[in-house]
Every structure is written in structure tokens, then in C-alpha cells.
């Protein structure tokens, strides 16, 4: 049984009003434990609406969502448990920091879970370490005196301190400088690789999706229009272009080279793969 | 004719004289001429935004001087002249539009300049046409997409007939579609003679400019054409910046011994250069790899 299962999930905002908008239409998908999934799609395609169903921040208008076997539409469902299992990092999460110190901010979730002081302290230290911030140095500091990239990592630590099984990230690198971007995405990559945490990544950046995710789900106008391995989805450049989406930069390079008559594989996802493909195609080995 | 913008040993210290003093700009001397398209890059805290805010007297130097079209920004009487010449677009598209109708928002600047009403109407129309937003003139700004909002913000500045447009991370919060819209708009404006200064984290956007200035710790680290600046991979890395993907890939291929020409910045240039090396192909690449 998959960890997250959506069955014909439909969500309508402001139903029965003149502003009625169908955000999701009959979305059926399953996400297993340990996957790293990217969700892509044009603005307004329903990406953020979809993931807010994964921890019951939104309820289906029709259809169902099950997390760890629990039907979230069941009035007796334990949503507190679901929200601990599925951690959601919103866009620009640093806007939600509010405590006086980094320690207190990260401790907020575990405290609400009713953990004792020692457990809270352990959770905070582990979470800060996981995002690459030294708990001793950063714990006492005001979150508002940090750099943009550091604030973003503190916000991520606040989610990790709940020990979620699934981490849902909505544009986690948006607006960061190049170093901040590499740093935070590297952290999520190792959380997945080393701890087996399931990651669902919403992104507009195809290079980012290709470099990190094994599977790519494409939404358009609230429907799932593609769902498969990143390597397969990103070879469908024409279909993606019709949705106003692009392929990763390096995929575009090899595709264009094929157009010039070069015999080169077209399923490359990152610079290393492009490098070997070009070397091979030029007979430069 | 004086340069459009000139800074002489510019320093800016926030909270000067207190224990929380921060030196944001630490001795920058640069000249930007009319018609240039300059990208300013640098990590967080490198001083990009602080520097940019001196270009239209939103901030005044705590040391050194800034001249805009020959006017010292510290002269109070010149401030309105300077702001009319150099307009700024900021990061958050939701914080910049003040009116409830697009065309009123665009009219706000020229109204404040005391432009006669008939001329305001003409300027608003022209500015909205330039950013491809004329059909939205009677729309409510808050219902537009991020890219559309930023284009309206740009139109509001164009309506003041500026010589220079400064974009302070104006594409950072936009989706790829919105980023493309804004980039296309500023390239077109630059082609028509407007000086553009684009502050960005996106190195691939910087590659589109004619000149790239990389800042580190409030000083200029690199200043040159994109081809020159992106040939200095180690220097950029030391500054916390990364090469854009295409120059980075070209560099690795050169390391493998593949004889690619220098200065490859775009997908087109890389594709042409690699195609020219195809087995059985006689090399006929442009030696600079630039078209």
C-alpha cells in the first residue's frame, strides 16, 4: 500500500459562487515511502492545492486522500498524526518565523506534540544539524538576524523537528542566491538518500527537478497529464512545450544536437550525463 | 556628456557609529554609460541592493560620491531630477502597485511630476503598449499574474520617461513564464536606448547582459563582458557564485580535451560549436563562439 493515495481527488474553491474555480479534477496518484517526486506544471495548474491535501490542510470536494492507510475524509481520522507524518514547507517559509531565538522557533512543533524538555532539545539539535546549522552557534540567535538562506533552513528545521516521514517542499529554493540554493537542495537530497525520507518537491525549475527527482508528475489545469520516471517525462519536450513548460537545459542541448544530425542519446538529466553523452557522440573517449 | 551613473569610492555603512554597524558597500568606483545593459550579481550580503539604491538617491553615500547625469545625489534639489531619470523596480510584485486600476497606477508617476493630463494619457498608453499590457489598462492590478504586475511596474516608470531602469531582483519571485516576460521587456527597452541595470541571482539572466559586475563583500570582484566574467570560474566560485549551466558544461568538455571555442554562453552557441566538431565535419566555428 502506498503511503499517500489520492483517488479521483477533486477540489473546487468557492463552490456555488460566481468565483467558483475547479483547482483539481479527478487526480488519482500514489506515492510510496522513499520516493523523491517532483511536481511540475504551469502557474495555476493545482500543484499547491494538491499537496495541501497531503496533510489535510485542504479537504477534497470529492474523491479521497489516504495517508498511511488513514482516510483523511473520515470524521474520526487522527489528523494530528497525519500532520506529524507529512511535513509541509510553504513558499517563502522564512516569513513564518516568529520566535525570539532559532532554538525556540524550531522547538515550537515538538513542544506542541507534548514531548518533554529533553526530547524537544534533542529534536531541535538533530533538525538544525540536518540542515547544516550548528545548534550551539545558531540556537540562541534571533532568526531575523540571519541571511535569507539561513532563515529558510531554520524554517525547514522546524518541519524536520516533527520527524515527518514525508517532506513536502513548495519551491524551497525560490529567491535564494546561488550558494543558498545549492546548500538547501543538497540538504534535502541527503535527507532522502541517507534517511530515506520521502520528498515531494514542487518546482518551476526543470534543472532542479531533473537533478533531484526520480519521478516527475506533471499537472495542467488540475489534472495529472504525465506521471513517470524523470528520464522518460523529460524526453517529451514537445508535449511539455504545449503546456508552456520547458525541458532541463542539458536535455534541450542534446535534443538540439540531434536536430543537427548528431547521433546522441536524448535522455540526459544533468551536466555530467550531458558531458559523457557529447563525448561519446563525438567519439572523444 | 557626463556618464549616466558614476560612483567614486562609494561606501555605505548601516547603523554607522553603533555596535551593529555593517559595511554594506566598501569603496566602489564605477561608471555606467547611457545605453548599457549591466547585470549586477553577487551572493546575499554582497551589497547589490545597497549599491543599486544609490543609483536613484534612495540611499545616500556615507562615504564617497554618486553622480547621476552629472548631479551629486547628496544635493537635495537634484533628487527629483535624479528619480525621474533613474527608476527602480523591486522584488515583490505585490508591494509596488498602488492604484486599483492598471492605467491609474501607471499615471501615478507622471501626475506627481506635474505632467499635463492630455500628455499623461498619451504616456500611459505608450508605456503600457511598450510592456505589452495595453489590453489590461482597465484591469485591477491584484488580479494580474506576477509577470504582468512587474510589467505594469515597469510601465509606471517608463511613463516618467527615464533614461535608466534599475531592476532589483525583479524576476526573483516570478515563475519561468513571468521571468521570460520581464526579460524580453527589458531587452526590448534596452534595444530602444534605455539603460538597464539588472540585479539578479540568476546567472543565466546575467549572461544576457552586455556587462556583468560581480560583487563580493561590498566590493567589485569582477567587471567585464559575460564571456570574460564567466571564463573566471574559480573566481566566481570563491565569491559564492556558480557558472551558469551552459558555460559550466562547456568548461567541462574543454577539460576533456574537446576543442570548443571560448565564450560559450547560450544553448545555441554550444549546439553550434559541438555540431561543428561532429565526426566527418570540417571545423568552421566562429572563433569567438559569439554571434
Description:
Chain A has a single domain, classed as P-loop containing nucleotide triphosphate hydrolases (Rossmann fold). Chain A contains 12 helices and 10 strands. Chain A has helices spanning 47-52, 79-85, 102-112, 117-130, 135-138, 148-160, 178-195, 206-212, 230-233, 237-242, 249-259, 271-281; strands at 4-13, 21-31, 36-40, 62-67, 70-71, 86-89, 166-170, 198-202, 215-220, 223-229. The radius of gyration of chain A is 20 Å and the shape is globular. The N and C termini of chain A lie far apart (46 Å). Chain B has 11 helices and 10 strands. The two termini of chain B are 31 Å apart. Chain B is an alpha/beta fold. In chain B, helix 5 packs parallel to helix 6 (176-191). In chain B, the strands form 2 sheets. Chain B has a 6-stranded mixed beta sheet with strand order 6-7-8-3-9-10, sandwiched between helices. Chain B has a 4-stranded antiparallel beta sheet with strand order 2-1-4-5, with helices on one face. The chains are: A alpha/beta (285), B alpha/beta (291). The interface between A and B is large, with 36 and 37 residues.
Amino acid at each position: 500500500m502506498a503511503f499517500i493515495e489520492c483517488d479521483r481527488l477533486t477540489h473546487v474553491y468557492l463552490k456555488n459562487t460566481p468565483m467558483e474555480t475547479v483547482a483539481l479534477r479527478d487526480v488519482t496518484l500514489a506515492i510510496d515511502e522513499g520516493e523523491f517526486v517532483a511536481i511540475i506544471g504551469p502557474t495555476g495548474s493545482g500543484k499547491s492545492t494538491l499537496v495541501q491535501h497531503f496533510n489535510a490542510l485542504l479537504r477534497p470536494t470529492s474523491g479521497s486522500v489516504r495517508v498511511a492507510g488513514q482516510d483523511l475524509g473520515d470524521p474520526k481520522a487522527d489528523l494530528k498524526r497525519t500532520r506529524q507524518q507529512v511535513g509541509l514547507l510553504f513558499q517563502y517559509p522564512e516569513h513564518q518565523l516568529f520566535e525570539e531565538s532559532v532554538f525556540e522557533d524550531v522547538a515550537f512543533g515538538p513542544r506542541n506534540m507534548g514531548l518533554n524538555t529533553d526530547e524537544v532539545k534533542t529534536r531541535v539539535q538533530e533538525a538544525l544539524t540536518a540542515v547544516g546549522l550548528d545548534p550551539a552557534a545558531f540556537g540562541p540567535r534571533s532568526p531575523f538576524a540571519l541571511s535569507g538562506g539561513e532563515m529558510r533552513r531554520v524554517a525547514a528545521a522546524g518541519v524536520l523537528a516533527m520527524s515527518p516521514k514525508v517532506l513536502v517542499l513548495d519551491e524551497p529554493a525560490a529567491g535564494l542566491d546561488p550558494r543558498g540554493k545549492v546548500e538547501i537542495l543538497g540538504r534535502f537530497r541527503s535527507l532522502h538518500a541517507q534517511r530515506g525520507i520521502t520528498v515531494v518537491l514542487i518546482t518551476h525549475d526543470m534543472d532542479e527537478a531533473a537533478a533531484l527527482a526520480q519521478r516527475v508528475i506533471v499537472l495542467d489545469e488540475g489534472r495529472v497529464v504525465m506521471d513517470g520516471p524523470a528520464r522518460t517525462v523529460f524526453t517529451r519536450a514537445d508535449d511539455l512545450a504545449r503546456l508552456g513548460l520547458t525541458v532541463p537545459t542539458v536535455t534541450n542541448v542534446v535534443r538540439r544536437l540531434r536536430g543537427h544530425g548528431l547521433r546522441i542519446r536524448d535522455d540526459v538529466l544533468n551536466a555530467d550525463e550531458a558531458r559523457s553523452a557529447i563525448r561519446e557522440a563525438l567519439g572523444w573517449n | 556628456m557626463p556618464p549616466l551613473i558614476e560612483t567614486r569610492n562609494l561606501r555605505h555603512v548601516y547603523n554607522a557609529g553603533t555596535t551593529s554597524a555593517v559595511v554594506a558597500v566598501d569603496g566602489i568606483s564605477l561608471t555606467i554609460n547611457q545605453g548599457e545593459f549591466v547585470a549586477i550579481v553577487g551572493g546575499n550580503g554582497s551589497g547589490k541592493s545597497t549599491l543599486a539604491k544609490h543609483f536613484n538617491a534612495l540611499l545616500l553615500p556615507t562615504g564617497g560620491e554618486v553622480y547621476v547625469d552629472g548631479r551629486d545625489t547628496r544635493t537635495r534639489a537634484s533628487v527629483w531630477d535624479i528619480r525621474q531619470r533613474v527608476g527602480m523596480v523591486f522584488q515583490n510584485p505585490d508591494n509596488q502597485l498602488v492604484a486599483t486600476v492598471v492605467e491609474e497606477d501607471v499615471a501615478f508617476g507622471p501626475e506627481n511630476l506635474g505632467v499635463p493630463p492630455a500628455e499623461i494619457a498619451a504616456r500611459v498608453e505608450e508605456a503600457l503598449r511598450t510592456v505589452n499590457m495595453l489590453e489590461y489598462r482597465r484591469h485591477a492590478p491584484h488580479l494580474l499574474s506576477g509577470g504582468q504586475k512587474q510589467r505594469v511596474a515597469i510601465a509606471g516608470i517608463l511613463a516618467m520617461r527615464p533614461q535608466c531602469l534599475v531592476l532589483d531582483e525583479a524576476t526573483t519571485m516570478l515563475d519561468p513564464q513571468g521571468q521570460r516576460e520581464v526579460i524580453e521587456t527589458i531587452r526590448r527597452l534596452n534595444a530602444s536606448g534605455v539603460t538597464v541595470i539588472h540585479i539578479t541571482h540568476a546567472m543565466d539572466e546575467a549572461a544576457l547582459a552586455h556587462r556583468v559586475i560581480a560583487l563580493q563583500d561590498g566590493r567589485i570582484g569582477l567587471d567585464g563582458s559575460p564571456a570574460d566574467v564567466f571564463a573566471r570560474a574559480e573566481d566566481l566560485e570563491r565569491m559564492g557564485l556558480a557558472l551558469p549551466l551552459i558555460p559550466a558544461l562547456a568548461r567541462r568538455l574543454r577539460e576533456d580535451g574537446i576543442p570548443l571555442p571560448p565564450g560559450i554562453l547560450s544553448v545555441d552557441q554550444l549546439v553550434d560549436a559541438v555540431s561543428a566538431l561532429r565526426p566527418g565535419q570540417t571545423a568552421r566555428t566562429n572563433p569567438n563562439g559569439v554571434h
